[in-house]
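Tutorial handout. Part one gives the primary structure; part two gives the three-dimensional structure as tokens.
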Amino acid sequence: MMCRSFCGARIILTIIAVFQLWRVWFDLGPNPSYKKQWGRPMGPLRLWITWTGVTCQVPGYSIIVFPSVSVQEGLCVSIPCTFTANYSNTFTNSTGIWTSTLSEPYDIVASNDKSIAEQKSNFKLIGNPDIGDCTLTISDAKREDEGGYYFRFVDRRNSKMSYTYKEVKTTITMTDLSHKPVILHLDTLMDGVEKTVTCSPPGNCPATSLTFQWRKSNIPGTWRKNASTITFTPMLDDDNTTITCEMSHSKGKMTQRTLPLHVYKKPQILQESQCRKNLSAIYCECLAMANPPASITWSSTGINVTETSGFSIKSSSHGYNTVSRLESTVMSPADLWCTARNTEGLVSQKIPIYGGANKSMSTKDDEKDIYINAEGEKEDGKKEEDVEEGIYANY
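Part two.
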């Protein structure tokens, strides 16, 4: 009788609240902008009805939990849940049980009592029943997990204070995998520096039955198989390519995420850098490889090496390479240093000076096209229009 009165009162209060909101809506008239504004306050009411339902529970025993939850196959979900028993939510050494049946023997899927055999290893009662928390998690969701589940409370100190909240059922439904995986730790990539990257399910879900494989746009086919975490050494050849993680569950449904690779490199002065000196002039070239491309400056002991101090300096970049050419017919420095710098660092190197009038770098008879590729290696016979990455130097 008490239950019937309690339930009836809740229904009446709900009807009154809905009627009052309808009157406010009606009194606003036909102006659609007002209705749009007042559409928002109705949201919490609808949410409250969805949360609690209009159910008849024994006075003093209540539970708040989502009546229906959808989860993608292979992923996980956390279902918040709170309850009271005998008007209290504080207990000592109590037991919480999630079950798919309402009568004994209960088909228990999760419990905080480790001595109880659980039917589903991927269901976990992570809430603490001693503080009225019945939160349930489901990991590695499967089609066979679909169905309705109930919470049951048992006070071990008082066997009479046990209750199954049969008025409120949480129904689990399964959908196909559609969420993309998450690629972690793919931030700054440095040329030649080992990097470990992880691909994981969204929402920090444990990847129990999920499988992963990797693809890289500059490598045909599958790059790495059956590994959620991989370690590789990025090179400049990987810059502006992409990396893809494919995630699939046991039924074969697959989703993927693709991210661009940006590989950075500290400046490196190439061994082709040199100076030629004859009786009337000195000619120098400094070649540096870097990403972003480096800027190059020159220095010498006791001499200010600038265009205003008797030197001609011209620099150009192509791809990852920069070449700076220095020439002077009025200055004859004893040594020359080339400094290349970018956002990742700088490097200085003394450039060797070779003498002899017949070895001048600027004479057309000795000039030869040398192509410096992305790895800093010389290649003859390249045409400049065929070059994508690299730079020419004339010797």
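Part three, for discussion. The domain at 182-261 is CATH 2.60.40.10 (Immunoglobulin-like). The radius of gyration is 37 Å.
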